[in-house]
Amino acid sequence: MKESKRIQKLKEKKVNHKLGIIVPYRDREQQLKRFLSHMKDYIKDIDYEIFIIEQADDKPFNRGKLLNAGYKYALDKGCDYFVFHDVDMLPEDVDYSYSDKPLHLATHLQEHDYETTFFDYFGGVTMFTKEDFKTINGFSNDYWGWGHEDKDLSNRAEHYKCKIERKIKYEDKDKGEYLKIFEDNHVREDCGKWGLAYGVWDKVAKEEQERYIENNGLSTLNYTIVSEEKLMDNVKKITVEI
Ligand code: UDP
Ligand code: MN
Prior knowledge:
Blueprint: H1 2-15, E1 19-25, H2 29-42, E2 48-55, H3 63-76, E3 81-85, E4 89-93, E5 103-104, E6 108-109, E7 125-129, H4 130-135, H5 149-159, E8 165-166, E9 177-180, H6 194-200, H7 206-214, E10 224-232, E11 235-241
Parallel strand pairs: 1-2, 1-3, 2-11, 5-8, 6-9
Antiparallel strand pairs: 3-7, 4-9, 5-7, 10-11
The structure holds uridine-5'-diphosphate (UDP) and manganese (II) ion.
């Protein structure tokens, strides 16, 4: 009797979660089409909604800020855990069910023959609970252009001791597999912040790290919603100026 109640509780816990998949987006129509049709077939038995957050303006692309905006939007829609998902990553063997620990999901990419990319790579696809993402104050809003906002995010998680897990143990080596879409000749302009994310971070005092994180992220986010469009039953595109 006792046991079955416990199991029932666990089951309730499982079905009560709602996943928000947040996709940063601008001008990749073919990739978006392919992504949406793939996800529709791929994800089963999970309560989820996809939010495409489109950058409306012509400023350099800002993945982190868009994902922060998407988090806030999806939180309002009742999501309690989040996957931040590049549009050009198609899951092949990936578990999207709730995790109370932050996860790096895109660990085994086809382009790298399904070997892990590099040891602290935290890009592509990541999962957070709403609580953990709030604790670390989300992404920095200040990485304009390509790259390094993912390392900044893992710095934040580390600072607040939200340990990131990866399913790269030997026995799980088939997990986290993604196919990356390559129809892609986009120009990438580096944001120029390698030094902040990789170079100096570990040398900066904890108090200074704290000040940096608290003054830049969800707490300082501002953006304007330009339009909202329902693309499918559980897919919405939200166009924002950031
Ligand atoms: N992205 C986009 N339009 C852009 C740049 C980036 O939609 O002009 C989004 C898209 O979801 C993409 C993600 O940001 O998958 C990461 O950018 P990119 O693929 O260029 O980065 P890389 O894979 O080279 O690290
Ligand atoms: Mn990409």
